[in-house]
């Protein structure tokens, strides 16, 4: 109410201030006042259009997200399908019962970090907004000492509570989960539960992504089994993989989710498998990187780079252990 009175009082004074001015000047004064008010208003559409602003939209740009996933992510039909459906459903809900929680699993270089960046760019197009409302935590960088776990728990709770109170549609990305000190991630359990609000802060619009190498070997076993039985990777059943991942990381001491209450209480909505990449997928990554850097998509060059970077650890020599992790640097060297 006080804010409305202040606005009314401000505009009531404008005619007095500009009564001696010409009509054009008066119009400019009114326009300038309106612009200034919009820029200083916390949730103004003008501020959100040109400056950083918390994304209070009820929907993401789902078509743009789908296009980015289809055009830039290779060999991950299971992951992209689940991510798209999960984000679509969560964004359509005007008052979600809980935050969206997704756990990405797979070998390094399969696209876990890349997909998280696509989500962040879709949610906040402007760099300044991403800097303020997308929060990335690296277990090795931010939580390096297991003996400091009590301090880390308080820090993590304060970070999440403070950031969500500023922007309900905050995105939290936890990478290197397999390096997370045991028990630390359970400290955020209250914020992921089905609740209206905690001390006046509503967490339902927030999104949490956990990036984890744990479970990657199990995913490869399933993929190899299908390949040996001459079945396409498109035939790999998602439900089997998700159930397997849930059990695997719960019982794996090096997953960050070992005996975690988040899993016991079913607070992770989706366990998303990132399949190992084949030679053809590595070639597609190289082609996309050449296009991104403005080079010609020369097939001989693509093959040369792909052969130079492929490392196949199993006797079947079908999957690359590095995936697309080093594609950008290899393209730089070859062009």
From TrEMBL:
The keyword Membrane applies. Pfam families: TOR1A_C (PF21376), Torsin (PF06309). Keywords: ATP-binding, Cell projection, Cytoplasmic vesicle, Endoplasmic reticulum, Glycoprotein, Hydrolase, Membrane, Nucleotide-binding, Nucleus, Signal, Synapse. One of its GO terms (cellular component) is cytoplasmic vesicle membrane. SUPFAM superfamilies: P-loop containing nucleoside triphosphate hydrolases. Homohexamer. Interacts with TOR1B; the interaction may be specific of neural tissues. Interacts (ATP-bound) with TOR1AIP1 and TOR1AIP2; the interactions induce ATPase activity. Interacts with KLHL14; preferentially when ATP-free. Interacts with KLC1 (via TPR repeats); the interaction associates TOR1A with the kinesin oligomeric complex. Interacts with COPS4; the interaction associates TOR1A with the CSN complex. Interacts with SNAPIN; the interaction is direct and associates SNAPIN with the CSN complex. Interacts with STON2. This is Torsin.
């Amino acid at each position: 109410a006080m804010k409305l009175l202040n606005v009314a009082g401000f505009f009531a004074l404008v005619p007095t201030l500009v009564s001696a001015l010409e009509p054009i000047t008066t119009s400019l004064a009114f326009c300038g006042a309106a612009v200034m008010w919009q820029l200083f208003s916390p949730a103004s559409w003008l501020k959100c259009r040109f400056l950083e602003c918390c994304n209070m939209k009820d929907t993401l740009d789902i078509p743009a997200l789908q296009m980015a996933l289809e055009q830039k992510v290779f060999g991950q039909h299971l992951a992209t399908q689940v991510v798209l459906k999960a984000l679509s459903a969560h964004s359509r809900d005007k008052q979600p019962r809980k935050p969206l929680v997704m756990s990405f699993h797979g070998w390094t270089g399969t696209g876990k970090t890349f997909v998280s960046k696509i989500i962040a760019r879709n949610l906040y197009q402007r760099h300044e907004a991403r800097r303020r409302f997308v929060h990335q935590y690296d277990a090795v960088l931010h939580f390096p000492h297991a003996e400091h776990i009590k301090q880390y728990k308080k820090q993590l709770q304060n970070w999440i509570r403070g950031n969500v109170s500023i922007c309900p549609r905050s995105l939290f990305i936890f990478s290197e989960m397999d390096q997370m000190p045991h028990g630390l991630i359970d400290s955020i359990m209250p914020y992921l539960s089905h609740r209206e609000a905690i001390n006046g802060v509503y967490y339902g619009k927030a999104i949490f992504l956990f990036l984890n190498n744990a479970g990657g070997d199990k995913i490869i076993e399933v993929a190899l089994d299908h390949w040996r039985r001459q079945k396409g990777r498109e035939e790999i059943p998602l439900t089997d993989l998700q159930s397997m991942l849930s059990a695997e990381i719960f019982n794996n001491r090096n997953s960050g989710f070992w005996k975690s209450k988040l899993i016991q209480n079913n607070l992770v909505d989706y366990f998303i498998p990132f399949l190992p990449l084949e030679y053809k997928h590595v070639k597609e990554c190289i082609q996309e990187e050449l296009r991104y850097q403005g080079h010609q998509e020369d097939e001989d060059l693509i093959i040369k780079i792909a052969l130079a970077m492929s490392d196949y650890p199993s006797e079947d020599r079908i999957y690359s252990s590095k995936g697309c992790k080093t594609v950008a640097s290899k393209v730089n060297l070859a062009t």
